[in-house]
Amino acid sequence: MSTATVNDGERRGKTGKVSPEPALWGLVGNTPLIPLDASPVFPRPSPSLLLKAEWLNPGGSVKDRAALFILRDGIARGELPDKRLLDASSGNTAIAYAMLGAAAGIGVTVCVPRNASAERQALLDAYGAEVVLTDPLEGSDGAIREARRLAARRPDRFWYADQYNHPANPRAHYVTTAEELWRQTGGRITHLVAGLGTTGTLMGTGRRLKELNARIEVVAVQPDGPFHGLEGLKHLDTAIVPGIYDPELVDWTEFVATVAAERILTARDRPRPPATALVVVIAPDSGARYLSEYRRLREEDAS
Question: Where do the domains of the chain lie?
Fold first, then answer.
């Protein structure tokens, strides 16, 4: 799929008429970097660690970036707003589509696993999205299959955005996230760390950063198995691999288990960048959308 072009700040429908983008759309991106203090857990000096605070996007997650670029593409193609945008999501992209779409009068239909947190489902309802809940045991892959089925059945009603294969997804990060990190670190970034879901964040940001400095290392994080409980992330060996994923771009991958994630990341024997490194970790959201799940798991542990 190629990407059509609309200039930032404007949108064009089938009539060819250009209209201004909603002001809300202009608030996406330019999130701050937050330095994290050195941890006493490590016996030797740790590298400088910075967190890219993507929860400060208007929709509360990194997915605002990809959703915005995909919406722009749909408008440039003349598909939106006449049709409804249709896509599969574990939750955050769905929320971004719904929020940005509502601001522009674009209908949004999203296929989401039924076990998406209560907070995510409430936000989708508040933004007026049409939600199709899918089998939680099939995860995001089940949502993808349902979205494909709906798109094939009603091409007159839906424009299937397909974030897992849409080039506008990594392009959003190539154009915005990478340039922000390069500017914010004064070109001193040495390592980029991000989780793999659609893979768009790591692919777009990593590709552009390596163009700016080929020595920058790109580190992927994914679950260590198919039944992991890490919302939004994919275990690529057992999942539908996104078409936008390029394994050659990744320097190394960290595999983490749900309950062992904290222990793994703080283990003393884990290989770590030198103390002179400057590591940037993409924080996709604040975690506030999972508090109900945290409470549920605590109650289950206590019973």
Answer: 25-59+171-292, 61-160
